[in-house]
Amino acid sequence: MLNVNGDAVLTTLRTLAGFGAVGSGVCRPALSPADLAARRWLAGEMEKIGLRATIDAVGNLYGAAPGADRSVLIGSHSDSVPTGGWLDGTLGLAYGLEIARAWMEAHPGAPVGIDLIDFSDEEGRFLSCLGSRSFCGDLPGLPAGFAEDAATTGLGSAPPIRLDPQRHRAFFEAHIEQGPRLEAAGLPIGVVTGIFGMRRYAVRFDGRADHAGTTPIALRRDAARLLYRFADACHHRFRQAGSTDSVWNLGKVSLQPGAVNVVVERGELLLEFRDLDPVALDSLSAALAMLVDEFDGQEGVRVSLEEAGRLAPVSLDATLQGLVADAADARGAGSMPLPSGAIHDAMVLARSVPTAMLFVPSIGGRSHTPVEDTRADDIVLGAHVLAQAVFTCAESL
């Protein structure tokens, strides 16, 4: 059994946390100076352990094992949300760097290698999972603003790094859970069964602007008042329509003309819901459409619905899940199967290559905030578990 160095993993994580550090958190949006500095540092670390590092025009950083004609690919992302934590994405990269080092040390020049990839813009400054979409050939064009920003970064015009099905036989991503389930269960390892699909909608409310001081309440066509009632009804109806795993968020409200002395003429509510079960997603969509029909015309306000985006749920590879669970058992680490409610690059990769994810607990379930943290013992244990799963996979190729 090959062993990885837990202290090396922690050192890599702490070094990456210094790029774009803001207090205990980080600010490393895609293509920012801090993001690019972190990638270039990581490229140097890849080269030190013998990987051949390249960065393409979208910012994907890839370390290839020389001499290998097939490989297990490990990856995640080093970009962050504007006020993010120190482990989101970087955990998987630190694991991958150390696992690749241990494998190359034991199997120099072997035909089977461990490759590492740091995907660009997972967090969606320009487009969610932009780098992994590009890697999988699922990026028809660059989003608005990306080319202009990239032109100032020195990335150049290197050809896109692409998934090679003949070489990349499996993909593993390790990540902090970003939720409370593992901590609540008292378990250090999560074996991810799949990644939630998502539906996003815009609900629009068209009323009439009037003087807020002179128009009687009963005569108003107040778009805001109906929007608030609609939002409350959504919570009740979604509980009935969704599954026990369904989650939803009414995340953005805009009101026009936006003056305290004018009755609101137009309102817009942006919402999303997520679930691993496509039947549950369809049920939630139907419940939303029914609510729109019920509210349309009430209090003289027209209500309309427009889909703003969707992602299909993805199930991860059962065989690779078994390798992660077996590796946890071999380490005496308790594990549990659980879905991911958050979007990850693994969601994109899973459509093209057998894919697995491992979670370690998030303290308090917190993430996307500077207080994001995981116990050092859990970080190190996760590295050992992922290493064993990856080594077993690589030895079978």
TrEMBL record:
One Pfam family linked to the record: Peptidase_M20
Keywords: Hydrolase, Manganese, Metal-binding, Plasmid, Zinc
The enzyme's E.C. designation: 3.5.1.87
Cofactor stoichiometry and binding remark: Binds 2 Zn(2+) ions per subunit.
Highest rank taxon of the organism: Bacteria
Gene3D superfamilies (alphabetical): 3.30.70.360, Zn peptidases
Positions bound to allantoate: 200, 261, 274
InterPro entries linked to this entry: Amidase_Cbmase (IPR010158), Bact_exopeptidase_dim_dom (IPR036264), Peptidase_M20 (IPR002933)
Chain residues that bind Zn(2+) 1: 77, 88, 175
Enzyme class name: hydrolase
GO molecular function per UniProt: hydrolase activity, acting on carbon-nitrogen (but not peptide) bonds, in linear amidines; metal ion binding; N-carbamoyl-L-amino-acid hydrolase activity
Keyword check for Metal-binding: yes
Binding locations of Zn(2+) 2: 88, 123, 368
Needed cofactors: Mn(2+); Zn(2+)
Summary of subunit composition and partner proteins: Homodimer.
Family: Belongs to the peptidase M20 family.
Protein name: Amidase, hydantoinase/carbamoylase family
Lineage: Bacteria, Pseudomonadati, Pseudomonadota, Alphaproteobacteria, Rhodospirillales
